[in-house]
Design brief:
CATH architecture of the largest domain: Alpha-Beta Complex
Oligomer: single chain
Structural class: alpha+beta
Strand content: 35-45%
Number of helices: 13
């Protein structure tokens, strides 16, 4: 009779320590192994009788997908042979198993998986047979789950990061920051990645199965991360994770600003098997980074302050005006879309080798899960090599041109001119507006009360703004983009009057402000100036919400003199017109009668709102309930309705939602609640507040969890 398997054990907790997967809750709470590919692990097998090397044959198969096959790399077949010893050969996709300890019916095996196998859920099948018998083999199917993920600590894995200490941040850190807000008021928003949560890997497995990505390709980080950028949004089908929305109407879902991290999103996706409502760019990026870190791919969240959305591949962001200096409500050169400037835009970087590109283009790669433009027919973007973006190598895979425009497009203004071949003349070009700062979180730092933990990585995306190298890289991209050539060949107009729109960084909610344009006549003659100034509320992606105030006039400016024009805006004019994130845009356009010089500019700023103050005990004992309190003051002169707090913290609380009664103007909002920490050490607690009238109120606190008394 053939051997029968009585027990097969994968030592999930023991293997997790050497594989750096001991933080996964699947391992600790459900005894599900999470293993890194390209690394040895220990298993035990027990048979119903003693193993006879001369008579018995045992094959152990690790299988992936519905039709596993060793040639495709989706199956690893091992033969139990105590007489043989194997060593690692990283040049071949070679599985092996060595017997560490074998006696009678019990064996301890050391198994090795290659560093390129697909990631996700694997199965195990053991076939036993008698060598000299024609009887069919006996089959044992391991009933538990087994996850293999990437191994960036292994130099033969494509995700390998040579500076391995950084993996503590880019793979193992489960709480971080995402920089959001306009240039002058950008701040780090706390985000709980939660890559080790019980729901995360099962949710990723659901995403993988719905993605359509071939099983054989799920070990390639290039194809894998491109697929992730497609599946985190739901624009192409119902299998994606998040529905996006930017119009402020979130009554049938969760407002993007209310999310505290990725776990409640992935949990809802797994439970409902439907897209979750709603996400915006930083939410898409937060979830994207969670998925990558959970799969062992080094990842970081990247925020681009003043980000270009180039809808027609011209490497320019274009706005058009008629003969009366009024902005056209459409793009005449792109009837299906429109260029825009986002106050900020957030995507993810992933780290990997790029064997499909020339040497030197590996390392950090940009992927963007926010659905903006299609690529190869789907809303996906990247991975685009940062080195290729910096050098303007738009011919390299994937979506390098779109990313070059995002961080370095020129901002151009056009006015109707029927004598021009394009029908418009260029009246203004700003080479410095886009990609002002590109930020991520500094490794090994976390500033609870400020932004000392932000890292400026602009130089990794482009050369110093205004430098010869920066212009050369952009022109290199222009040469490789047919549509861009026509826009960059336009001649400059004569300009002898200088216009400056004074920037507004921030105002406190309820304060008045002014739009100021400074005009200098550098010529020796009078100049007749026509000027228009306005202010409006906008969504963070640059879409206008409500006009606030507008003024226009004309005057004569003396030779070699300067004048200031001012448009005053009072708080009562804008308070009722604010939309989520309280961002406003000021506009100005002017023309010079004598020279036909025309100038236009705009600036964004944010109205500052209060933070949530979180009070926690100095120390909290692990696995024991602890009381915390949250409070802030309603800054509006109106009632707040449909009030909710969201509270999250890895190993502290998954996603606690507390409904609060309506709040009167100027009233202190306070709640008390309880958390029960799962593990010891320093933890981070994140909270958000949302209501119909006020969104994007956030707060964070450090929580020190200590061991209890024995």
């Amino acid at each position: 009779m053939a051997l029968e398997v009585e027990m097969f054990y994968l030592y999930p907790k023991e293997n997790s320590k050497s594989h750096k997967t001991d933080q996964y809750e699947l391992v600790n709470e459900e005894d599900i192994p999470v293993l890194r590919r390209g690394q040895k692990f220990t298993v035990a097998v027990r048979f119903n009788r003693d193993f006879d090397f001369n008579k018995d044959m045992v094959k152990i198969a690790f299988n992936y997908g519905p039709t596993p096959h060793p040639i495709k790399g989706t199956s690893g077949v091992l033969r139990l042979d105590p007489s043989k010893k194997y060593s690692i050969d990283n040049k071949k996709p070679f599985w092996f198993a060595n017997v560490l300890d074998g006696k009678e019916s019990n064996f301890i095996l050391e198994v090795y998986s290659p560093p390129s196998i697909p990631v996700g859920l694997w199965t195990i099948r053991i076939d036993t047979a008698v060598k000299t018998s024609n009887q069919p083999s006996t089959v044992f199917n391991y009933e538990g789950d087994l996850y293999f993920i990437c191994n960036p600590w292994n130099c033969h894995d494509q995700t390998y990061m040579p500076e391995t200490r950084l993996l503590e941040e880019y793979v193992l850190n489960d709480t971080g920051k995402i920089w959001v807000g306009p240039l002058g008021t950008s701040k780090g928003r706390e985000w709980v990645f939660g890559q080790f949560d019980t729901c995360t890997l099962p949710a990723i497995q659901l995403m993988l199965e719905r993605s359509g990505l071939a099983y054989i390709s799920r070990g390639d980080p290039i194809r894998l991360t491109r697929m992730i950028s497609k599946m985190v949004n739901s624009n192409d089908d119902d299998g994606g994770i998040l529905n996006g929305r930017w119009d402020g109407d979130y009554e049938d879902g969760t407002a993007p600003s209310a999310w505290t991290g990725s776990v409640p999103i992935l949990h809802e996706y797994l439970e409902t098997q439907s897209p979750v409502s709603y996400g915006q760019c930083w939410v898409f990026s937060g979830v994207c980074t969670t998925i990558c870190r959970a799969l062992g791919i080094p990842s970081r969240v990247v925020s681009n302050l003043v980000s270009a959305h180039d809808a027609n591949s011209t490497l320019t962001i274009d706005k058009y005006f008629d003969e009366n200096n009024d902005e056209l409500p459409y793009d005449p050169n792109n009837p299906t879309g429109e260029d825009s400037i986002w106050n900020y835009h957030v995507w993810s970087d992933v780290y990997m080798a790029r064997p499909d590109l020339p040497v030197g283009y590996g390392g950090w790669q940009a992927i963007d899960a926010t659905p903006q433009e299609t690529s190869d027919g789907f809303f996906q973007c990247g991975p685009a090599s940062l080195e290729a973006i910096k050098k303007g190598q738009v011919g390299f895979n994937y979506d390098v041109g779109f990313m070059v425009a995002s961080v370095n497009a020129d901002l151009m203004r056009w006015k109707i001119d029927h004598s021009n071949v394009l029908g418009f003349k260029r009246i203004y070009c700003n080479k410095y507006h886009v990609g002002r700062f590109i930020l991520t979180k500094q490794p090994f730092m976390y500033d609870y009360n400020g932004d000392r933990d932000r890292q400026d990585i602009t130089s990794q995306y482009k050369a110093e703004e205004g430098s010869k190298a920066e212009r050369l890289s952009l022109l290199n991209a222009v040469r490789g983009t047919e549509a861009a050539k026509r826009f960059y060949d336009m001649p400059e107009e004569m300009e002898d009057v200088e216009f400056t729109l004074q920037d507004l960084d921030r105002i406190k909610i309820g304060e008045d402000f002014s739009v100021v344009v400074r005009i200098t006549n550098k010529s020796a003659e009078y100049r007749h100036i026509k000027c228009q100034m306005s202010a409006a509320t906008v969504y963070y992606n640059g879409v206008k919400a409500h006009p606030i105030n507008k003024d226009e006039g004309e005057f004569n400016l003396k030779p070699n003199s300067t004048e200031e024009l001012r448009l005053n805006v009072s708080a009562c004019e804008y308070l009722d017109k604010l939309v989520e994130y309280c961002i406003m845009k000021i506009y100005a356009i002017a023309s010079v009668t004598e020279t036909n010089q025309t100038w236009a500019d705009e600036d964004d700023f944010q109205v500052i709102k209060p933070d949530i103050e979180i009070k926690v005990p100095r120390t909290i004992v692990v696995k024991q309930p602890a009381s915390i309190s949250l409070k802030f003051v309603n800054p509006l002169k109106k009632n707040l309705t449909d009030c909710k707090f969201h509270i999250s913290g890895a190993s502290l609380v998954r996603n606690q939602i507390i409904v609060h009664p309506d709040v009167r103007p100027g009233t202190v909002i306070r709640i008390d609640t309880t958390i029960v920490p799962k593990t010891e050490g320093e933890q981070k607690l994140v909270a958000t507040f949302s209501s119909k009238q006020l969104l994007d109120i956030t707060g964070t606190a450090k929580v020190d969890v200590v061991a209890g008394e024995e």
